[in-house]
Design a protein that fits this description.
By secondary structure, this protein is mostly helical. The protein has helices at 11-24, 28-40, 48-58.
């Protein structure tokens, strides 16, 4: 598993991390992992399906507008020969 080292962390920041970790009932290392994960994977990211559904609603589509059978015809792959 990857690991990182943070150099030149001030005593004040380290102390604040330790206090924050204690408030959350976990180790300082676990607290730092949680902070980093939250920073790089924000929960408000837009998911493709949600974005497409919102786009459909914005142009007036409703669920019943999409009630159709999907074409299940098997296609042949393209040949480059």
């Amino acid at each position: 598993m990857p690991a990182i080292t943070v150099r030149n962390l001030s005593e004040e920041t380290h102390r604040a991390l330790k206090l924050r970790a204690a408030r959350h009932g976990r180790s300082t290392e676990a607290e730092v992992r949680d902070i980093l994960e939250a920073a790089v994977q924000p929960p408000q990211r837009v998911r493709l399906g949600d974005a497409l559904a919102a786009l459909g609603r914005s142009v007036g589509l409703e669920d019943h507008d999409l009630d159709f059978e999907r074409d299940k015809t098997v296609t042949e792959p393209i040949s480059f020969e």
